[in-house]
Every structure is written in C-alpha cells, then in structure tokens.
Amino acid sequence: MVSTEDVGVFLGLDVGKSFHHGHGLTPSGKKVLDKQLPNSEPKRRALLDKLTGKFGTVLVVVDQPASIGALPLTVARDAGCRVAYLPGLAMRRIADLYPGEAKTDAKDAAVIAGAARSMPHTLPTLELTDEITADLTVLVGSDQDLAAEATSNRIRSLLTRFHPSLERVLGPRLDHPAVTWLLERHGSPAALRKAGRRRLIELVAPTAPRMAERLIDEAFLALDEQTVIVPGTGTPDLVIPSLARSLAAVHQQRHALEGQINTLLDTHPLPQVLTSMPGAGARTPAVVLVTVGDGTSFPTPGHLASYAGPAPATKSSGTSITGEHAPQQRTDSSNAPCSSQRSPPCTTRPPAATATAAEPMGRPHTGPAPPRPAPHQRLVRHAPRWHLLRTLPRTTA
C-alpha cells in the first residue's frame, strides 16, 4: 500500500494517446486542478514542478502503468513525485459510487484522485522496473504477437480443399523450415509431381538431411492416392508460395527474438533457477519474469502458486490459503456400513439390555423378548405405498 501521510496533492491522471486529463485534490478534499494536459514532457514537468513548489509532495496516480502511461510515470519519478496506479476493476467499482452514468475523462480523473485520497489501500505500489525486465517486456510482447501470426491454417485449408492426402503429410510439419521452403518453390500438387522425386530430395536435404527422403516418399504416396483433379487446383501454385514465405518470415523473426531473449536472460540472476526446471527454455522464464517480477510481491510461496494456478485459492476471508475448513468426522448414518457389510449381532448381550417399542429407551425390560415379525409382515412393513395399494383387494359397489 502507498503511504499518503505527507502527501500535499493527489494528482489523478486519466491517460490517453494525445491528451491526459488531470484532477488534483488536497488531503482536505479541495480541488486544485481539473484540466486537460498534453502528452508531452515539458508541460507536464512544468506542472509537476509548480505543484511540488506550492503543496510539497505530489502523488501521481494513473489508470494504466504501461503503454501510454509509461511516460507520465517516468516524468513523475524524475521530478521527485511519488507514483501509483489504480487497477481498472477497482476504478470501475468506485466510479459506480459517483453520481451520473456517463464515462468521461474528467470523471475518471476525479475517481482516480478521490480513491488515492480516501482509499489508499486500493493503490498497488509501482516499483521502478530494472532495465533488463523492461527490455524483456518489450521482447516478450513482440514474440507473443508473432506467435499469434505464425499460423498455418490458411495453407492447410487450401491443401485440404484440393488434396486432403497431401495435407495429411505436409500439414502437421508446416512449422519445419524444410516444408515451408518446399512449398515456397512448389505450392501445388501438380508442381510437386512435375518437379520429380530426386529434385525435391535435393531441395529439402540442406534443411532436413535426415527427413528429406522419408518426407518426399510420403508426399508422392499421398499424390498417388488421388487420381482426380479438383477444379481450381492451379490456384494454390499462386497463393500457397506467398503464404509459405510469410510463415517462414514469422518463424525467422521469432528465432531472432529468442536469441535476444536468451542474451538478456544470461545477465539476470533469477532465470538460472527457472531454466533448471524440465521443459523450460527461454520463453517460459522470460514470461515468468515479466509477469511476477522477482516474486517479492508475494508473501509466501503458496500465494505465488495460487496466483499461477497450481494451488487453489481460498474463497473465505480470514483463512489461510492452505485450506478453508478442517476435516470433520461425520457421525450420521451415511458413514455406517451397508446391511451386507454389517457384523452379526452380539450374542453375549443380555436380553435385559434391549428395548421394545412399547417401552422407551433407557428403561430395562424384564420380560421375554418380543417375537420377530414374520417374513411377509416385514415385507409389507418396508414395501412402498404404491406396491401396497396394488396388493389390496378391489371392492365392488
């Protein structure tokens, strides 16, 4: 939680692409600023210097700490101001308490400043990110965007339409550079058949020496399975090569980014632990560092596991995350064994300790034990009502 003891002005900024809207409040709730601010460093620095000289410490609170909110936070830190941010979910809940339903920049800035003044517990602290983590954030974001573009669905859709057998051979291997290189040169079934087996093996061998012959043999077996020509089969020779080049370019960019991520991870101490886990390469430790940082924001390892997903989170306030309720021993009849598993009755028990239906429990019985009902009487006693109604004799009027 951000400390607000000696803060002179709570400056809430609703950041935008071209302009920000600022709203300033004193600890007593007096409004000292409510205007639009340009997204430029000189004017924002001049405003912060003016507020600092007049009111003392200034707390700058934004609603987006990254992207368009990165420059305001950097300028505020450089000007000697404190920084914090209000999460979007908390901001929307607090905004519902204000009159009016219209969402404007002025209202959002007022909500941010009011929350910082009266509810500082809603403001997570913003620690200064080191240079390595900042660079990893940019690289990981770019890599994730490229991963969304590295899709082979369009190529597989065209191959499935004109030659399903060939798609079953080449489709699952489109991530391999040898297959994309093959489709860049010969994109249609007719072009592959025309090139010939030997030429295709020579074309694929430099990028896939161990898979070249097996891949081309499987491809020609698939070509021989289909004897008819689907109308429009000549068009893939124009479309598939361009799609294959685009896919190969995306893979090359991701490979280059992976090298840069590895270089940054070598200079960071924490990935040595993350990369020791089985199956963790370069991208997984980078994503972990970008998401949770150095892990100091989590009080215990259980909180980190609950955030990541392996451990369940508690749904009851005031309890630990290890569990909500202690296991209780059930004493009802559901824990009793079924009739086929019950032990036989004890024969050493004296008859005086049993109770009958005519006498309440706890009073000793001095007479002989009551006779057990006949089998047909026990059947009638425990039979369902509908069965008893069916067995009753019918009466005629």
Structure description:
It is a single chain. By secondary structure, this protein is α/β, with parallel strands linked by helices. It has helices spanning 41-55, 70-78, 88-95, 105-118, 131-149, 153-162, 164-170, 177-185, 189-195, 197-204, 212-225, 236-266, 271-274, 283-292, 301-308, 375-382, 385-391, and strands spanning 7-14, 19-25, 31-38, 57-62, 82-85. Among the domains are: 7-122, Ribonuclease H-like superfamily/Ribonuclease H (Nucleotidyltransferase, domain 5); 153-254, no CATH class. The radius of gyration is 38 Å and the shape is elongated. The N and C termini lie far apart (87 Å).
List the SSEs and their pairings:
Elements: E1 7-14, E2 19-25, E3 31-38, H1 41-55, E4 57-62, H2 70-78, E5 82-85, H3 88-95, H4 105-118, H5 131-149, H6 153-162, H7 164-170, H8 177-185, H9 189-195, H10 197-204, H11 212-225, H12 236-266, H13 271-274, H14 283-292, H15 301-308, H16 375-382, H17 385-391
Parallel strand pairs: 1-4, 4-5
Antiparallel strand pairs: 1-2, 2-3
